[in-house]
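Our preliminary data section would be incomplete without showing what the modeling component actually yields. Below, a chain of 232 amino acids is followed by its predicted structure, encoded as tokens that our downstream tools consume directly.
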Amino acid sequence: MNRRVLRTALTAAALFGGIALVAASLVIPALLLLQADDRTLDRWSQIGQAVSPVGVFFSGIAFIGITLTLFLQRRELHNQREELTIAREEQQRSSEIALRQLHTDLIKMAIDDPELREVWPQLVPGVEETKKDHYCNLILNLQKVAYETGTIELEELRGALAYLMSSPDMYLFWEKARTARANVTSGDEAEDFFTTEIDRAFTAASPQPPQSLMRLLRRAVAQWRAGRHGRR
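Predicted structure:
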């Protein structure tokens, strides 16, 4: 703010100085002409010819002052445009974050209430969604917001997505959701970029497949028998 005030003061001083010089070069000769006789005028003419370089010097200073004023004004306008652009980008980013927070709240409501969960369309026709699916969606949205707000860099985002895709539940969620998400967000540069990054992590991932119910039952029975033999 102090630098802006200083620039404004210098611009005003240069402008008024140039105007004063131009006014003086017009007023002073006019006053002399009104009060002088022929002899005095002849004398002043000779003096004027002798000091004419001084007039050229002051004219040059006035021209430089006007040029400097125009330059400073142009720079000030450029800075103002940059500030307006930054403010507009910040406002747009804040609005997007607010919308994502609203989206997060809606998903939370769907997680807590099965009836509200039915309002959301299925990711894959005929495949029932679970609380885990909505929770996985929240986690991915968190990564996107963190990257877009500059909290994490691109390499950190990729590392986080690679880690998340090591989870069987996250892997299965994206396997179901990737087509639907691509159809919904197609054409949005930021969304397309984030979808591409998730797909990159998804393609590179090789999580352990979720165990079937029969395998879980067999393991539970084996653990129960082992514990029973141990007590004997």
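The chain has nine helices and no strands. Residues 121-204 form one domain. Preliminary results of this kind motivate Aim 1 of the renewal.
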